[in-house]
Amino acid sequence: MRSSEAPPGAVVEARGLTREFGSFTAVDQVGFEVTGDQVFGLLGPNGAGKTTTIKMLTTLLRPSRGRARVAGFDLEEAPAEVRRHIGYVPQLISADAQVTGYENLWVSAGLYSIPRARRRERVTEALALLGLGGVADQLVKNYSGGMIRRLEIAQALVHRPSVLFLDEPTVGLDPVAREAVWEQIDRLKRTYGTAIVLTTHYMEEADRLCDRIGILHRGQLVAVGAPAELKAQLGKENATLQEVFVHYAGEEVELGGSYRDAGRTRRVAARLE
Ligand SMILES: Nc1ncnc2c1ncn2[C@@H]1O[C@H](COP(=O)(O)OP(=O)(O)O)[C@@H](O)[C@H]1O
Ligand SMILES: [Mg+2]
Q: Which CATH number covers residue 223?
C-alpha cells in the first residue's frame, strides 16, 4: 500500500508488524509512518488489534514478526532507548486516586529517572501543560474523569518524550470532558510538536484530532491517509469515515459509542472508589 521509504523525520516507522496469540493473528503485517508534527490515529472497532499494535510499539509486547523504529530506535535492538523516549497512556486507568495530582506526577518523574533537582520543574511544567496547575494539590479521587485522563497524559509527558502513545484516550468520558481532552491533545501537538499516536473507535475523535488515520480491520491496516483524503477517495460528496470504513473493510461495524463503553465507565468509576 505504501512505499518502503520512510519520510524524513519519521518518529514511528512500522514494517510488517505481526502478533499472533496461538493460532490467532491479532495484528497482521501492519506498516505505517508517523512524523514529528502529527497526530496519527489507529481507528477500528473493538478487537481490531489497536491495543496489541500500541503494546508492540511501546515494547510491552514482542512482535511475532516485523520491525519498527520508534523515536529513532529499533524496537528489537534498543527497547530501553525506545522506552526512554516515549510516553504511554494505557487504556485502563493508571492514576492513584488516594494522593494528589502533584504527587502522582512526582512518582512518574521518579519512574522516568528525572534527577531530583529537576523534578519539581518538570512536574509543574507537565501539570500546567494539561491545564491542571490549579488542582495540583487536590486528591485525585476528587477529580472528574476528564481531569484524571489529563493527569494520566501529564504523567506520560513528565520526561518530555518525543512520541506519546494514547490508547483510547476518551473512552468513558462525557462529551464535555472529551472535548477538554481533545483540546489538550491539540495544544500539545501545536505547542510542543510532540508526535501523538492514539487509538480510537470513535470516528468523530479520529476526524477531529488526527492528521492521518490508519483503519484497522481484523488486525490488518486496510487504509492510511488524512481523513479528508480517505473520504475523497470514495468519490462521493460528504462521505463520512463510517462510509470509508465500510468501503475498505467491506462490512458494517458499529464504530461509535456502544454498550461496552458503559461497562468500561463503570469499571473505571469502581476503581476510583
Ligand atoms: N493476550 C492475548 N491473548 C489472546 N488473545 C488476545 C490477547 N490480547 C488480545 N487478544 C485478541 O486480539 C484481538 C485484538 O485485541 P486488541 O488489540 O485488544 O483489540 P482492540 O484494542 O482493537 O480492541 C482480539 O480478538 C483479542 O481478543
Ligand atoms: Mg484496545
A: 3.40.50.300
Tell me which residue range forms the domain holding 226. Answer: 27-93+163-272
In tens, the pLDDT along 124-174 reads 999 998 999 999 999 999 999 899 999 999 999 999 999 999 999 998 888
Query: Does residue 21's CB lie within 6 angstroms of at least one atom of ligand 1?
Result: yes
Q: Determine the residue of 51, 218, 261 to mutate for testing ligand 1's pocket, defined as the one with the most ligand atoms within 8 A of the Cβ atom.
A: 51
- pTM above the 0.85 mark? yes
Q: Give the three-state DSSP class for 69.
A: strand
Dump pLDDT digits (tens) for 243-264: 898 888 877 666 654 434 444 4
Q: Could you tell me if residue 247 is inside a domain?
A: yes
Taking the centre of ligand 2 as the mean of its atom positions, its distance from the CA of residue 52, in whole angstroms, is: 7
Could you give the number of structural domains in the chain? Answer: 1
